[in-house]
Amino acid sequence: MSGIERYAAPRTLEEAAELLSAGGATVFAGGTDVMPQANAGRLRFQKTLLNIGRIAELRGIGESNGVVRIGALTTITELLESPLVRGRFRALWQSCDHFASDQIRNAATLGGNLCNASPAGDTLVPLLVLDAQVVLAGKPNGTLATRRLPLAGFLTGPGRTLRAAHELLTAVEIALPPAGFDSEYFKFGTRPALDIAAISIGLGAVREGRVLRDVRVAFGAVAPTPVRAPRVEAALEGRIADDAAIEAALEAAADEIHPISDIRASDWYRREMVRNMLQRMLCDVREG
């Protein structure tokens, strides 16, 4: 591991923040993103390799006062096995079921998936649908300070976020959705789990009879970051998911996505897949 002069494995958030404030550190947890990127030459290790895997404060899934806190070190397997996640955040649970292999799920952390900030990141799309926010902590002035950002504002581009060099992502917070809210996640790739998404879609809403309320839609792998789709949401909000509403939503989606052509799919193919799969998801909603 060229460039590393020091290895540190703090046991508290305070200690980790102190080490980060000194600068020149590469944060390491599950390693499922860091190691492949380093081996491919896309990541250069800093002088200090900072293993945060022993910090108990960064673990766990719990609910308090209507807000669910998921620690940054929570693994994909732990999310998949959580009754709370499965029962209240179905789209997130489904995304974990399509996340890589069992071995990777056992090591990969939610915080790592968010900080990797891939446009195709599996957990990012459902977390956008769930209006998640990230919690960051650091010691810029010698005192531990935290700040919260909406996930949509945290992601700024492929591999880029608003996490400062002196900060750790400590947790994700999700307000419990309103009664009757349900969500779905769809991922398309050559293989459902082991491949990176060519496109992904998250959809959530409350059904009041046949009318949709609190509609939330997000797309992955069709823009520089995973994105919410406010025009699609507006086309569906307060409406029955009839043919006219679905067509309006599909037209809005075509304007809101900006896919590229790469090794996994062409621009045209991604657009076709978004249209076809969003239509299928909305028809499923209509049929109950």
Describe this structure in words.
The protein is of the alpha+beta class. It has three domains: 6-51; 58-175, Uridine Diphospho-n-acetylenolpyruvylglucosamine Reductase, domain 3, CATH 3.30.465.10; 181-286, 2-Layer Sandwich (Enolase-like, domain 1). Helices cover 34% and strands 26% of the residues. The strands form four sheets. It has a five-stranded antiparallel beta sheet with strand order 4-5-10-6-7. Strands 11-12-13-14 form a four-stranded antiparallel beta sheet. The chain has a three-stranded parallel beta sheet with strand order 1-3-2, with helices on one face. It is globular, with a radius of gyration of 19 Å.
Short synopsis of the structure:
The chain has 288 residues and is of the alpha+beta class.
> Tell me, what's the shape?
globular
In CATH terms, what is the fold-level topology of the largest domain? Uridine Diphospho-n-acetylenolpyruvylglucosamine Reductase, domain 3
Q: Using only CA atoms, what is the Rg?
A: 19 Å
- Tally the beta strands: 14
Supply the number of structural domains: 3
Write the H/E string, N to C.
EHEHEEEHHHHHHEEHEEEEEEEHHH
Q: Topology, pairings included?
A:
Elements: E1 6-8, H1 13-21, E2 25-28, H2 34-39, E3 48-51, E4 61-64, E5 67-71, H3 76-80, H4 83-88, H5 90-97, H6 102-107, H7 110-116, H8 124-129, E6 133-138, E7 145-150, H9 151-154, E8 155-157, E9 160-161, E10 167-175, E11 181-188, E12 199-208, E13 211-220, E14 227-228, H10 230-236, H11 243-256, H12 267-286
Parallel strand pairs: 1-3, 2-3
Antiparallel strand pairs: 4-5, 5-10, 6-7, 6-10, 8-9, 11-12, 12-13, 13-14
Helix pairs in contact: 10-11, 11-12
